[in-house]
Structures are given as structure tokens and as C-alpha cells.
């Protein structure tokens, strides 16, 4: 089972802390694809927080793969 596949992603942009919420669309081993509703996606090397209950995982954007999706 994918523990994090139903979680949401919070992208905090700079110190302003504006939040963009994305959804995990695919998990393959340690690779996670996250899709956002808007064309404004996080930059490469930005951190994403994934919260699942009391646990938090921090993901790093490595690639823009199109269709408002990062990997």
C-alpha cells in the first residue's frame, strides 16, 4: 500500500509562506509525482511538505514533467 498516495502536498513559497496545495499522482519507489491545480509549480530544488496525520515528509523538486506536475 502507498502510505502517502492519499496525502496532500503543501508548497510554501519563500518566506511569505503562500501555500499551494498539490496532490500526489504517482509513487514509484522513492520517486513521487505531484500535480498542482495552477500553472504555478514549485521551482527545481524547492521543498514540498507532505503531511499524513502526525507525520511529515519533505520532498525535493527535481524535475518539471509538464501538465502542472513535478517529480
Structure, described:
There is one protein chain. This protein starts with 7 loop residues before the first strand and ends with a strand. The protein has strands at 8-13, 18-28, 31-36, 47-52, 55-60, 64-66, 69-70. With 71 residues, the protein is mainly β. Strands 5-4-1-2-3-7-6 form a 7-stranded antiparallel beta sheet, with no helix packed on it.
Give the CA-CA distance, first to last residue: 20 Å
Strand content: over 45%
Q: Radius of gyration over alpha carbons? A: 11 Å
> Which regions are unreliable across 5 or more consecutive residues at pLDDT < 50?
1-6
N-to-C series of helices and strands: EEEEEEE
So how many helices? 0
Shape: globular
Q: Please give the number of β-strands.
A: 7
Strand order of the largest sheet: 5-4-1-2-3-7-6
Percent range for helical residues?
under 10%
Mean pLDDT equals 79
Please supply descriptive tags for the structure shown above.
71 residues, mainly beta, 7-stranded antiparallel sheet, 7 strands, 56% strand
Layout of helices and strands:
Elements: E1 8-13, E2 18-28, E3 31-36, E4 47-52, E5 55-60, E6 64-66, E7 69-70
Antiparallel strand pairs: 1-2, 1-4, 2-3, 3-7, 4-5, 6-7
Short description:
The chain contains no helices and 7 strands. By secondary structure, it is mainly β.
Amino acid at each position: 500500500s502507498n502510505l502517502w498516495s492519499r496525502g496532500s502536498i503543501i508548497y510554501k513559497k519563500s518566506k511569505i509562506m503562500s501555500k499551494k496545495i498539490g496532490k500526489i499522482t504517482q509513487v514509484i519507489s522513492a520517486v513521487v509525482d505531484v500535480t498542482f491545480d495552477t500553472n504555478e509549480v514549485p521551482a527545481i530544488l524547492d521543498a514540498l511538505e507532505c503531511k499524513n496525520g502526525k507525520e511529515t515528509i519533505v520532498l525535493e523538486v527535481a524535475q518539471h514533467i509538464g501538465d502542472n506536475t513535478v517529480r
